Amino acid sequence: MPGADAPRPFRVATGDGLELAGESHFPAAARPAAAPPRAHLLLVHGFAEHRKRYRGLAGELAGAGYAVHLFDLRGHGESGGRRGHVERFADYRGDLARVAAAVLPAPDEAGAGPPAVLLGHSLGGLIALDAVLRRPEPFRGLALSSPFLASAFRLPPFVRAVAGATARLLPEADFPAALDPEGLSRDPEVVRRYREDPLVLRRLTAAWLGAVLDAQAEVFERAGELRLPVLLLLGGADPVADPARGRALFERLAANPANRLEVYDDFRHEVLNELGREWVVADLLDWLSHAAPGPPTPGGPVPPRAPRARPAPRPRR
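RE: above sequence
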C-alpha cells in the first residue's frame, strides 16, 4: 500500500468570523497526474479534544490510499472561539459545511471522482449525524465512533431543566467538564497523554450543554430518515457515551445492506485509541472498501481483513 505525504495545513473562516485550524493527509501516490485517493474522509473529533490526537489514524488511512481531512471544532484546539462553548448547535453544522466545501473536491462533469465519507467521534458523531440528516451531500457514507447520543451516566431530570434555564439566562456560565481520562481507554499511555495535553479542555458552558441535549433528542428521533450507509463502532464498556443508546439508534436506521454495527465488549470510549485498536481500524477499512468504493490506488485494493480472534459483539437490542 502507498505511504503518506506530510500533513498539509489549512484554515477555514466561519460564518461569524472565527478561524478553524485543520490539516489534510494524502496518500503519497495522490500527487498531480497520479491516481486519486480511494476516498476522502472528513473527520470530526470529540468534545474537549482536538485534531492532532488523530494524526496517527490519519497516517494509517492515508497509507491505505485514503485522503483524510482533520480540523479543530470552534472553541477547541487551535481554532477560534470561546473554549468549550457554542451558542447554537447549528454553528457546528455550519462550520462543518464550510470545511467540507473548502477541502473536499467537487465531482467532475460526469459526477464521478473519489467519494467523500464523514467520520465522527463522540461529540463529532453527534455533529455528523445532525449535519447529514439535514443535508447528506456531498457524503456517500457515515462512520461513527462512540457517538455522544446520551451520557453513559444518567442525568437527573432536574439537571436537564437547570441546564436549559441556565443556557437561556447565563449561556456563558461555565463549569468543570468532569471527564475522567480513565474512561477513554484501557491503554495507560493514551490516558497519560490526554492528562498532559495542554490543548485538552477542562470546562464547558451552559449553552454548550443545552445545545447538545437538544441535538441528542432530535438526532435520535429522526434517525430513521438517514439514507447514507452507516458504520457504527461502539465500546461495550464505554463510561462516557451510552452504548445502549448507540445500539438503539442503529435499530432505528432505515434498512441498508451497507449498514454495520460493531461492538467491542471490553473497549472504553475511544475505540480507535484502545488496546486492540487494530481490529477497529481493520473494520473501518473493510467497511470503507464496500460502502464507499473509489478508484484503485497503485498496488491494488486494500487487502481483505484477516481472520482473527476478537471479543464477540454484544447482541443488538
